[in-house]
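Saturday, quiet lab. Running sequence design on the structure tokens for the scaffold JK sent over.
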């Protein structure tokens, strides 16, 4: 028997289902709703039969189902099956899939950040001041001053999360910024910006660029009212090690999801430096 005859050979519903890795009940249902019919039906016992030439059509249906295309959409496509219609349908689904991939990548980045924060809590000496290398990335920022109320800060952050379609707060990291000039002048409560760090955000006008290079990293545990003392220690450390601080100090809580009281709150402080 040559290859052409083999491809014309009838296959039982069980054989055809097994060949495509699906349950034969799926083929029965597709037949019942008119989506995908067998090539032949035995008039005596009602058994369904298929052949090899139907495989590409079924695989297309299964692919579309895997992309969460509705049965109605697939039925409409099957009634008007053409290269152009399939191209348009796949283009739409590729776009949707790209969005899902970006979403999952963002979630993974967030999880990795939380994991790193927990590793820091468990392994690092939080009293230590160290130098770290950081890559350039951009932040969404909102301007604040000493007169900005907590309610206003919430409104500003909420507006930005809606603007960038974050949906849920856990999809980004949040923090505050204070200029190095303010720190050097002893104005430790002169915060000028809140920031949102969104995974995979590309730079464009209006965003704040966090520069690449070396950063001085320190931690503060406890109430915010005691942060000035930690900044004084940081300034002393920088002077002793001949490090020039510049730009902004970036503060971010790293253990908010595992504490119940403010005394256990830990702030990570990062400031760009020139050696």
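Result came back. Writing it out in full:
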């Amino acid at each position: 028997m040559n290859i052409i005859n083999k491809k014309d050979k009838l296959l039982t519903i069980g054989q055809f289902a097994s060949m495509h890795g699906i349950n034969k009940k799926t083929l029965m249902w597709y037949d019942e709703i008119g989506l995908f019919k067998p090539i032949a039906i035995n008039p005596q016992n009602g058994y369904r039969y298929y052949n090899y030439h139907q495989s590409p059509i079924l695989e297309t249906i299964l692919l579309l189902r895997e992309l969460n295309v509705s049965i109605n959409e697939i039925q409409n496509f099957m009634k008007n099956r053409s290269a152009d219609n399939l191209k348009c349908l796949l283009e739409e689904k590729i776009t949707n899939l790209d969005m899902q991939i970006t979403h999952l990548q963002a979630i993974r980045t967030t999880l990795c950040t939380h994991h790193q924060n927990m590793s820091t809590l468990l392994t690092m000496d939080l009293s230590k001041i160290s130098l770290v290398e950081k890559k350039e990335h951009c932040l969404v920022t909102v301007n604040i001053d000493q007169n900005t109320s907590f309610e206003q800060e919430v409104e500003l952050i909420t507006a930005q999360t809606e603007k960038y379609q974050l949906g849920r707060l856990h999809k980004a990291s949040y923090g505050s910024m204070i200029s190095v000039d303010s720190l050097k002048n002893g104005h430790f409560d002169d915060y000028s910006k809140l920031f949102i760090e969104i995974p995979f955000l590309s730079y464009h006008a209006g965003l704040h660029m966090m520069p690449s290079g070396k950063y001085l990293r320190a931690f503060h545990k406890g109430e915010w009212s005691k942060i000035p003392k930690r900044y004084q220690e940081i300034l002393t450390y920088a002077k002793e090690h001949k490090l020039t601080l510049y730009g902004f100090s970036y503060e971010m809580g790293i253990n908010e999801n595992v504490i119940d009281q403010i005394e256990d709150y830990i702030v990570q402080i990062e400031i760009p430096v020139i050696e």
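Notes for JK: The mean pLDDT is 88. The CA atoms of residues 145 and 192 lie 5 Å apart. Ask whether to fix the surface positions before the next round.
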